[in-house]
Structures are given as structure tokens and as C-alpha cells.
Design goal:
Layout: E1 3-5, E2 12-14, H1 33-36, H2 46-52, H3 63-87, H4 92-100, H5 102-115, H6 126-134
Antiparallel strand pairs: 1-2
Helix pairs in contact: 2-3, 3-4, 3-5
């Protein structure tokens, strides 16, 4: 019998408890991935998680996953460009990196649109897509799958 501490009141509870019997705080129960058909557990690094789903255009991506992927990609491209500028190179490495990140950028953007319960085609509209990308996730499951935050 495995026990964990409640996220709300720190009382010791069973690890499969959905909510604490003492304070009622939700616990975010870990599911068995072998039997539930869910994807493997996340590593915690949104950049790596998005790269693992390189060309997956189904499912949902949280707001954090999307924006952290964009930020880390931008910082890597900036660093590559800076190093190329210092070395007097012509920009082939930064162009190659940008080309390699094209498909993951599109796929994570489409999954982000799915998280707000919109079609992935919305990413092609310049202003509207930014508004949708900053919106919070739709609570609970939607037609594109379960909420990546695990919130019902």
C-alpha cells in the first residue's frame, strides 16, 4: 500500500486517491500508462515533449507547452545566429535549424488550437491565431482528446 502526501493539507493519503478525504484538494492521480492507452509520462521539458511529437497533428498541447517550445526554439535560433555572426559564417546553420523546426512548430501550434477546441487550420490566419494561442485550455475533454492539464 503506497502512500503520498496531500497537495492541500499534507495529510498522508493513498496514492490512488482522486481527492484528499481531509481537505478535498484534487490530487492528480497518476494512471497506469500500459493499460490506459495514454501517452508516456511527460519529462517536464516542453521543448523535448514537443520534439517527441515531431509530426503529431492530433491531440492537445497546453498553453505552457506551446509557449515554452516557441521560447526555447527562439533562444536556440538566436544563439546559433549569434555564434554564426561571431565566426563570420553565412547563416547556413541557423537556416538549417529553422527548417528542421518547421514541422514541430506547425504541429505544436495545431495541437494548441485543438486545446482551445478549434481546428488546426486557424493557425494560417495571422492575427486571429495569436488570440486563440494565448487563450486558456478548454476545461475537460473535447473532440480532440483529454485535457493535457488533467483538469476535468
Amino acid at each position: 500500500m503506497s502512500m503520498v502526501f496531500c497537495r492541500g493539507c499534507a495529510k498522508e493519503i493513498h496514492n490512488t486517491a482522486v481527492a484528499c478525504p481531509q481537505c478535498g484538494a484534487p490530487q492528480g492521480v497518476q494512471q497506469s500508462y500500459a493499460t490506459s492507452g495514454s501517452p508516456a509520462p511527460a519529462t517536464g521539458n516542453p521543448y523535448i515533449e514537443a520534439l517527441k511529437k515531431y509530426a503529431v497533428f492530433t491531440g492537445r498541447a497546453s498553453r505552457r507547452e506551446y509557449w515554452m517550445f516557441i521560447l526555447i526554439s527562439f533562444l536556440i535560433a538566436l544563439a546559433i545566429g549569434f555564434v554564426e555572426g561571431l565566426l563570420g559564417m553565412k547563416g547556413y546553420a541557423s537556416n538549417l535549424y529553422s527548417l528542421a523546426m518547421l514541422v514541430p512548430n506547425i504541429s505544436v501550434a495545431i495541437r494548441r488550437m485543438h486545446d482551445t477546441d478549434r481546428s488546426g487550420w486557424w493557425i494560417w490566419l495571422p492575427i486571429v491565431n495569436i488570440i486563440f494561442l494565448v487563450q486558456d485550455s478548454q476545461r475537460g475533454d473535447n473532440r480532440f482528446g483529454p485535457n493535457p492539464k488533467g483538469i476535468a
